[in-house]
Amino acid sequence: VTEPTGKVLWRITARGGAVNANKERWKPEDFIGRKAKIVGNPSRGAGRKAMAAGVVTFDNGDVVCLGGCPGVPEQ
Known about the structure:
Blueprint: E1 11-14, H1 19-23, E2 36-42, E3 50-58, E4 63-65
Parallel strand pairs: 1-3
Antiparallel strand pairs: 2-3, 3-4
């Protein structure tokens, strides 16, 4: 996640790598420039701005499970 100036606000990775997204036929470029709500595990270090994403919900209602989705076994 970056500001328009290019300053990095958050670094977000897929909790289970890209495996779960690939299974659902999502590609990295499908995420670029889209607004979404992301639920996951933030970094434990004080002041760190990183997160392992588990569930991504886009504005249009599309949901991508990257690990930790209800009813979906962990990979």
